[in-house]
Specification:
- It is a single chain.
- The chain has no helices and eleven strands.
- The strands form two sheets. Strands 2, 4, 5, 6, 9, 10 and 11 form a seven-stranded mixed β-sheet that branches.
- By secondary structure, the protein is an all-beta fold.
- The protein has strands at 2-7, 10-13, 18-26, 28-39, 45-52, 57-59, 67-72, 77-82, 91-101, 107-111, 115-120.
- A hairpin with a 5-residue loop joins strand 9 and strand 10.
């Protein structure tokens, strides 16, 4: 079983910055893709940013140029640096990891519990 734990959310004023972290633990063989999703009030969960083992990245258009995703493969950790935050960035941010476990190399698709980000105007 693979567990993901997020940290770093909080309350910030518009224009400010926050850095989210997500550490994966458990019977991990590899994690091909790690990503951040968010659920804004009254909206569906959406992809914010994702990164592969080879550091290929993908961003939602709404965060390009403001957010940066990175990962430390040795620590099975992914980060999301969020700059120039806007009130519309408010939501619960979830970490996601997809890869294979050591047990029979079975695939996993795991989620963290979520961390609240609130941007005040």
């Amino acid at each position: 079983q693979v567990r993901l734990v997020e940290s770093g959310g909080g309350l910030v004023q518009a224009g400010g910055s926050l850095r989210l972290s997500c550490a994966a633990s458990g019977s991990i063989f590899n994690i091909n893709t790690m990503g951040w999703y968010r659920r804004a009030p009254g909206k569906q969960r959406e992809l914010v940013a994702a990164i592969t083992t080879g550091s290929s990245t993908n961003y939602a258009d709404s965060v390009k140029g403001r957010f940066t995703i990175s990962r430390d493969n040795a620590k099975n950790t992914v980060y999301l640096q969020m700059n120039s935050l806007k009130p519309e960035d408010t939501g619960v941010y979830y970490c996601n990891g997809r890869g294979r476990e050591t047990t029979w190399l079975r695939e996993f698709d795991s989620w963290g519990q979520g961390t609240q980000v609130t941007v005040s105007s």
